[in-house]
Amino acid sequence: MDKVPMTVQGFRTLDEDLKRLKTIERPAVTVAIGEARLHGDLKENAEYHSAKDRQGWIEGQIVQIGDMMARAQVIDVTKLSGTQIKFGATVSVIDQDSEEQARYQIVGEHEADVKKGRISITSPIARAMIGKGSGDVVEVRIPGGLKAYEITKVEWV
After folding, report:
1. What are the residues facing 149 on neighbouring strands?
2. pTM for the full model?
3. What is the DSSP annotation of 50-93?
4. What is the DSSP string of 13-38?
5. What are the tens digits of pLDDT across the range 7-36?
6. Potential cystine with 95: which of 33, 42, 60, 100 (Cβ 3.0-4.6 Å)?
7. What is the C-alpha to C-alpha distance for residues 116 and 13, in angstroms, rounded to an integer?
8. Helix (H) or strand (E) holding 120
9. Which tens digit of pLDDT belongs to each residue from 85-135?
C-alpha cells in the first residue's frame, strides 16, 4: 500500500467527514429507508429507491475516506523548514506575463482546492516548483503553451 502525503489539516477534514457520515448521514438514511418501506410496493417506490441510492453513496464514501486515511502519510508542515520547495510549502509567485501575484500551498491530491490556494503536489505548477527556491523562475506547460512564474517567497505555515 503506497503512502500518500497529507497535511494534518487534510487528515482532520477527512476524519470529520468520516465521523459525520457514520454518525449522522448513515443513521438518517436508514430511517429514510424504513419510512419509505411503509409507503407500500417497493418496486415502484421512488422514495425507497432514492434512499437506497443515497445509502450506497454514503457507504462508498465511508470506504473511500477510510482507505485514504489508512494510506495517509500525515505531515505537520509547521515542523518543516528550508529554502527549497517541497510538500507542504506555501509559495508566493508572480506571473511573468501579467505580473499577477498568487500564493499556493502544496498539498496532497485529495486536499487540493485552487480557490483556497491549495494545489496538488501532482499538479503541473507544483511539480515545476519542487526543489526550487525564492528567486527561481519556473515554466509550466499549460494548454496555451508555457507560463513562467517567478518564485518570490517560500514559507512553512
Report:
1. 95, 138
2. 0.83
3. HHHHHHHHHHHHHHHHHHHHHHEEEE-GGG---SS--TT-EEEE
4. HHHHHHHHIIIIIHHHHHHHHHHHHT
5. 999 999 999 999 999 999 999 999 999 999
6. 100
7. 14
8. strand 118-120
9. 999 999 999 999 999 999 999 999 999 999 999 999 999 999 999 999 999
